[in-house]
Design goal:
The protein has 225 residues and is α/β, with parallel strands linked by helices. 40% of the residues lie in helices and 20% in strands. Strand 8 and strand 9 form a beta hairpin. Helix 6 packs across helix 8. The radius of gyration is 18 Å and the shape is elongated. This is Response regulator with CheY-like receiver domain and winged-helix DNA-binding domain.
Length: 225
């Protein structure tokens, strides 16, 4: 899943981005509130990691603008401001979680997984679809109890389709969810990943909606002809 980090400290921003990418997230990073506003208005992200003390536009103002336009994206404030009034102000402005610096990267990743899980309406960490199970934290997939080896991109694509089961995703939507800025993307990359997933998990799992995109039908429901 794709995350936006807004942090003005160069070393810390690079560290968070690298740590989240190592944890399987597609993490983009900007260093001021104005750049954050432009990115959030033009790109899809699964969650936002937001510092408060930002140049140009404050973190609270970025958050207020996001909520004012009705965007329910999960937001985790990550800041050195630990006064109760600051925590209250952040949560009341629309944040879903609040972490104080210094922090643990593993905990940050776990909190982001919890936020995106709840946003998707799931109470449990694993995504279960028939006899297919996907564990986002461990980045593991099993089919009928047997482990399935997937590449990082195959795992991310399967995760996105399962998280939005029943919804058709266009190729452009899939690319925007799976590829951070600067990622190399071949023109047929999505088609290749779909082919590999069908070979490993069964030809009927992912359906092509001709001229539109791809979907995994909701479990227990047959796709319309």
């Amino acid at each position: 899943m794709r995350i936006l980090i807004v942090e003005d400290d160069q070393a810390l921003g690079e560290g968070i981005q690298m740590g989240l990418r190592q944890g399987g997230w597609q993490a983009d990073w900007v260093q001021d509130g104005e750049a954050a506003g432009h990115a959030l208005a033009s790109e899809p992200f699964a969650a936002l990691v937001l510092d408060l003390g930002l140049p140009k536009v404050s973190g609270l103002e970025v958050l207020r603008q996001l909520r004012a336009r009705g965007d329910a994206m999960p937001v985790l404030i990550l800041t050195a401001r630990d006064a109760p009034d600051d925590v209250v102000a952040g949560l009341d402005a629309g944040a879903d979680d609040y972490m104080i610096k210094p922090f643990n990267l593993q905990e940050l990743g776990a909190r982001l997984r919890a936020l995106t899980r709840r946003r998707g309406g799931r109470a449990v960490p694993e995504i279960v679809h028939g006899n297919l199970r996907l564990d986002p934290a461990g980045r593991r997939v099993t089919l009928a109890g047997q482990a399935v080896e997937l590449s990082a991109r195959e795992f991310d694509l399967l995760h996105e389709l399962l998280a939005q089961a029943g919804r058709v995703l266009t190729k452009a939507q899939i690319e925007s969810h799976l590829y951070a800025w600067g990622s190399e993307l071949e023109s047929n990359a999505i088609e290749v990943h779909i082919h590999h997933l069908r070979r490993k998990l069964g030809a009927d799992l992912i359906r092509t909606v001709r001229g539109v995109g791809y979907l995994i039908p909701e479990a227990g429901r047959s796709p319309a002809p």
